[in-house]
Request: fold
Amino acid sequence: MTMVSRPVLFGALALIIVAVVALALPSWLVSLTTLAFANALVVLGLIILWRAGLVPFGQALFYAIGAYAVALIDRYGGMHDVFVLITAAAVLSAFAAFLTGFLLARYREIFFAMLSLAMSMILYGALVKTETLGSTDGFHVEAPTYLGYAPQGAMHLLVLFWLVLAFSAASALLVFLYFRSVAGALAVPVRDSEIRLEFLGVSVNGLIHLNLVISGTLAGIGGAFAALSIEHVDPNMAYWTTSGGFVFVTILAGAGSVAAAFVGSFVFEFLKSIAYDILPGTWQIFLGAVLLVTILFLPEGLGSLFGRLRQRLNLKPANVSS
Amino acid sequence: MLTAFAILTDGLVYAAYLFLIAIGLTLIFGVMRILNVTHGSFYAFGAYGSAIAVGIYFDRGFPAAGGFLLMVLVAMVIGLVLGLILERGLLRLFYGKDEVIVVLVTYAAFLILEDVIKLIWGPNSYALYQPLALAGTIDVGSLVLSGYDIGLIVFASLLAIGASFALKRTRWGHLLTVVIFDREIAAALGINVTAVYTITFVIGAMLGALGGAVMAPKIAVTLGIGVEVIVLAFAVVAIGGMGSIGGALLGALIVGECRAAAVHLVPQIELFVIYAVMALVLIFRPQGLFTRIAPRKI
Amino acid sequence: MSAILNVRELEKTFGSLIAAHNINIAVPPLQTVGIIGANGAGKTTFVNMITGHLRPTKGSIWFEGRDITGRPSREITRLGIARSFQVPQIFASLTVLENICTATAIARTTSGLIHQALTPLHSSAILADSDSALELFRIAGYRHALAATLPQGARKLLDIAMAIAGAPRVVLLDEPTSGISIEEKFDLMAVVIAALKRRGITVLFVEHDMDIVERYADRVLAFYDGTVIADGPPVETLENPRIQELISGPKLKLAVPNGRHA
Reply:
């Protein structure tokens, strides 16, 4: 159990610290972190797929499904409880991932990426042209209630933040355990030799289908929380640049560890925010440069810094792949 | 009947546009296996360059024909400069790395160039109206067709023929074809693959800029025009087969007509239909309509 | 004794090309069968049909009394027929130990993906089985080496070790000694055959090196032009002038025993 409990312990500790510190932080930072963690869920899903050598260019499909599910049920379904909304978003995006997975699981590399892109753009096209969904402007999302409790004022930011934090913790733990399971560990073998796996009795397409459902669901939950956080949905959430942003963060974070998704996402949102403020005319140059530097000098992403740190502090057993 | 004709002509115009924006992308992908997101930047730079330079040209009252020639010239210069800087200065550092990584590098370059455009030309919108006015209109029955649109169709067709000829009949075209099919064998045959890469990328950049340059009179040249072009060009290239000029042409025609039909008959699915066609083709023929090399679907 | 593997009237055509035809073989349990023949003679087609990679156009394949004709590779593997590859199919990014642990873990999680998602990879049972597999194939010394850094011989052994992680009753080896230097071929084959015999596995191996075939096969199947032209004990089959003419070439009388290759 030592291999599992140390990272989990550290994670739990970090979580509690963050939850408590949030009380003292300015609301813009709390909001930013909420959005960062919501997006981190999407990145977590991307990491799962990237480990198997697959990079979809259309995760925004599920992100948007989750977001619009929340927005629509909130506005037209008459239900405002956050748990109902999130569950609905999760179920809908899981279902969408399950359906699209039948197709996507049969492709690899650039064809996989492009088919995924095409699917997300189909949703975008549909959203933009639908008047009742607000077309390009999208529409507003009201603040949800929490099992009857309706927080007032600044509290509502904090409560949402704590909820997102809790979901992030749960997802992180589950994905962490998944990586340590047989199915999760098969990701790298898929990259190395699908033939060997097939001839050991594994259905590689089935495994990829499973991974697609997991990451689609995570993306949907992420989108749902994002919608609640920014209190708005619009078709841009399905656009290719949104998908691109997620892939960007995944590269920044690296595929090595679960924590990297959250740290990477936070760093990205934070950098973006600073760049808007300090370099309003050139924030994209800044981000582009950051991406290039990361690819050149830190190809394993920020997560690899973690790995090296852990080895330095002698916490990580040398020959276990995380 | 009238609607059918309108769909046909609108489709052809849109197809011309799609072909013009897709040809550079498919060339670069075919030879270098790079999905070049910066393609959108080439388009944008071409459009800005054309809008401004040609605008000035016409303002000074120079002869009309020269104006159109200037468009092409501007595009070639922009393509040359940008292409060289990007390929030699940036992409070269990432050759051999994972395909996806290289796409991300081009995405990063695209982000940077978007802001460079803002820095150079500001957030204003530029309009180039003279070419449209000069080209006039042609009446076909009760339909009024823009002379410029007809010109675009002719231009795109000529470009398709020219590119096809260049690939199949010239020595340079043969070299490119060999590299497209198998980079390693090409190198083993003594072909300077590095030089081929640079030249291909520059030509691709020129073609991208050319697309923007000739489209400038039809659009409001402003920030963000490159963004939509990228994903549209991708769709066309994916349909036609990556690396195939004929495929880009066929893909452009299919998408162009489908979109025109949607616009006239079921406007709600206009955006939808383009990507639906792309998805359908990818499902049934993932390597595209023209490419012979089948993907490893396992 | 009833055959563990039975092939009847097997045929495979690709359009007008007849890749294999008229193949009838019954393999008793624990036999070691050497399959020889020039390239294109139908050996690989034969192996691919048995392992489910290709569906026969005609005929049937019976394993332990069960008809496995046309079933997918995944199923056939789970039923008990495994194979190794000419180019060893190993997981280059993982260590040797991780490779064999993966294969062992898969063998133990037979109920499918959900079972696999719920089972931790690192358990003492899996580790123990993996270690003994490495010992059996004499590659325990490479335990923590990245598979990508292994020499060809070790790769072949790892490939075969993984193939039998699921305790198959039949294994097909595709050119197990190809790419191995002459000095090491016999040692490699000795380790492989000893390991497989220890585990009670029936072996069919494709080989181009006649000395290996002569030394290790109980029986030789000679393929030519898509069908089996000879089926018998090694010495007899390899001495057969027709076989020598079509496949192996004459046995050279030299001071040092060297290889005859097809």
User: Anything to note?
Assistant: Residues 294-298 of chain B have pLDDT under 50 and may be disordered. DSSP finds twelve helices and two strands in chain B. The CA atoms of residues 96 and 210 of chain B lie 29 Å apart.
